[in-house]
Amino acid sequence: MKWLIASDIHGSALYCGELIKAFGREGADRLLLLGDLLYHGPRNDLPKGYAPKEVIAQLSGLKDKIFCVRGNCEAQVDQMVLPFPVMAEYCLIETADRLVFATHGHVYNTDNPPALFEGDVLLHGHTHIPAKTQVPAGWWYLNPGSVSIPKEGSPRGYLTLEKGLFLWNTLEGREYDRLAL
Question: Domain with 168 in it: what CATH number?
Fold first, then answer.
């Protein structure tokens, strides 16, 4: 199974549309969204193409393929307008004999990690900065960056996961990092 993993759309219909194109181009089976889908939040400027109602329509077309965790910008009203669950704090994926703990990053993060074993993965967005770091305890922290509001000069992008291989890609599909676990 191939996963496409993305975070922090923040209501940009423009970049959500690019993400959906990438989902099709990648031939992914599932789309894992790491939160902050519709609202830009008080700390961010409006992203280009800000149109949350359009994002709702775009994502609704993939409702049977989406898994999502709640970001710090999600609220109960978001669940009322989206046809797939968005309020879970985390989701678990088992791949290549490893556990992937997927969350947004505002609750569970490298400063407050869940129970992980050596080789496991803490996967979260929230920072808008791509990451690939093995912590001293032996587990990995991975971040796909942001779809619409990247920070620290990082590209707009996403991750794919297939057979234990994580690939970081720009929204245009250019691979720029990888990790095989």
Answer: 3.60.21.10
Let me know if 153 is exposed, middle or buried by CB neighbors in 10 A (0-12, 13-18, 19+): exposed
164: left (phi over 0), alpha (psi -120 to 50) or beta: left
Cβ atoms of 33 and 55 within 8 Å: the answer is no
Question: Is residue 48 very low, low, confident or very high in pLDDT (cuts 50, 70, 90)?
Answer: very high
| CA angle, 168 then 2 then 52, to 5° | 70
Is the pLDDT at 44 greater than 90? The verdict is no
Provide the domain count of the chain. 1
Residue 129 burial (C-beta neighbours within 10 Å; 0-12, 13-18, 19+): middle
Residue 10: give the domain boundaries.
Answer: 2-180
Of 61, 10, 62, which is closest to residue 35 (Cα–Cα)?
10
Q: Is the pTM of this model over 0.70?
A: yes
SS3 23: helix
Instruction: Give the residues across from 162 on adjacent strands.
Output: 2, 165
Q: What are phi and psi of 2, to 5 degrees?
A: -110, 130
Q: Which residues lie closer than 8 Å to 18 by C-beta, 6 or more apart?
A: 147, 156, 171, 172
